[in-house]
Amino acid sequence: MTNFIPTKYQLISLCCGEEFADKNWELQCPHLHQPSLIRAGYESTRFELHPEYAGIYKFAAWLPVERMLEGSGSPITFKSEGLAGLLGLKQLYITFNGYWPERGAFMKSGTFKECEAFSVCSRTNSSKGVMVVASAGNTARAFARVCSQNKIPLLLSVPMDNIQALWFDSPLDPCVKIIACEKGGDYFDAIHLSNLAVELDGFYPEGGARNVARRDGMGTTVLSAVTTIGKIPDYYFQAIGSGTGAIAAWEANLRFLADGRFGSNKMKLMLSQNAPFLPIKEAWDLRSPTILPMDDDLARKQIEEINAKVLSNRKPPYGIKGGLFDALSDAGGAILAATNKEAEKASALFLQHEGNDVEPAAAVAVASLIKAVKEKLIEQDSVVMLNITGGGIEKFKQENSVCYATPEKIFALNEDPQEIKRQIAKLFR
Ligand SMILES: [Zn+2]
């Protein structure tokens, strides 16, 4: 294997501009100022591809990583003919995350969560201990795959209702343990379990949107697109749950502006949610800097209705400094909505005109692109990047046999917290 050279970078607080070293899995400003993201500032402001590195590591110049792990795939970008022809778009570029060997896409868990997982697990100074991740599905599958293949201790907390999302092409290594909240519990109950776990010695939180490696891992989609197209696109289409991918896309755009060789525009962020669950759209349409208060029961009911379950985040990093509100305010754009029916139709069109399946969230993005063209929100000759955040899953399952993971422990929703902690600690003895 090619010798890997760790990437040089500093961390920057967006609250006060403090620059500091990434000593120990930093997730926030060392001065504990207002809620704010931190960002990686890379030593090389000119972006250079590293074709000699495998998979996602070809983008290592702008990833906060110190080592190269086995088995990564990378986003790929190609100029669309099929879908572009159908929509009359002259410069539609599709960035595809997932499984599509004929086009050089080899993400075996089928979504861009794998970019995040490889980037996070390769981050400099990763703590020794057990990393804890709570997830409703795709993120759990991606982290399980990467950690299992590279023997990184991982505790995954998932809702039992979503356990079928944990399919793999080979059994998981015992370094990965899964806990679940019982049926009827949701993502927030899974987060409750993970919060208890990180109170234990030897366990540390992955960090989600606050983890610079997570965002810059997702940002590789834009690195792929811009280096393939040769310029920064005019529009960026993606379906969002937390909106972290859109923040990452904006941050990558800002880095390309500093690079200077790929144009001087900011991509308009054309983001989409699965109706009727639209908390980010409802906030942005009013230009509210925070998510509007929501009725928990109504939110649960709306989430039950939507097919793209990964788009169901009720507490997105929207109002935090450097978060989605700041990104949209700076770059411009819109939040669009697509119903299940519109997404299903879009998914069928993608399969017919491009030749691969897309997962429900990506179908929402395709549907919103179709809508934007119809409503003339974009010009036919503009450069458009469509981020297909997951696809080829049906194809992968047809070409490979898969097995399903089972949790070590299933906790009742009213289980005693001390008992939960005792049981979790026992798993890794
Ligand atoms: Zn600060």
Write a concise keyword list for the protein shown above.
429 residues, alpha/beta, Rossmann fold, 7-stranded mixed β-sheet, 13 helices, 17 strands, binds zinc ion
SSE arrangement:
Layout: E1 9-13, E2 19-20, E3 38-42, E4 76-79, H1 82-87, E5 91-100, E6 105-106, H2 113-121, E7 130-134, H3 138-150, E8 154-159, E9 167-168, E10 176-181, H4 187-197, E11 203-205, H5 212-229, E12 235-239, H6 244-259, E13 268-274, H7 279-285, H8 296-305, H9 324-331, E14 333-338, H10 340-354, H11 360-374, E15 383-391, H12 393-399, E16 403-404, E17 409-411, H13 417-427
Parallel strand pairs: 5-15, 7-8, 7-11, 8-10, 10-17, 12-13, 12-15, 13-14
Antiparallel strand pairs: 1-2, 1-3, 4-5, 5-6, 9-16
Helix pairs in contact: 2-3, 2-5, 5-6, 10-11
This protein binds zinc ion (ZN).
Zinc ion binds at residues 13, 15-16, 18, 29, 31, 33.
Describe this entry's structure for a reader.
This protein is an alpha/beta fold. It is built from 13 helices and 17 strands. It starts with 8 loop residues before the first strand and ends with a helix. Strand 1 and strand 2 form a beta hairpin. The strands form four sheets. Strands 4, 5, 6, 12, 13, 14 and 15 form a seven-stranded mixed sheet that branches. It has a five-stranded parallel sheet with strand order 11-7-8-10-17, sandwiched between helices. A three-stranded antiparallel sheet has the order 2-1-3, with helices on one face. Bound molecules: zinc ion (ZN). The site of zinc ion has 7 residues, from loops.
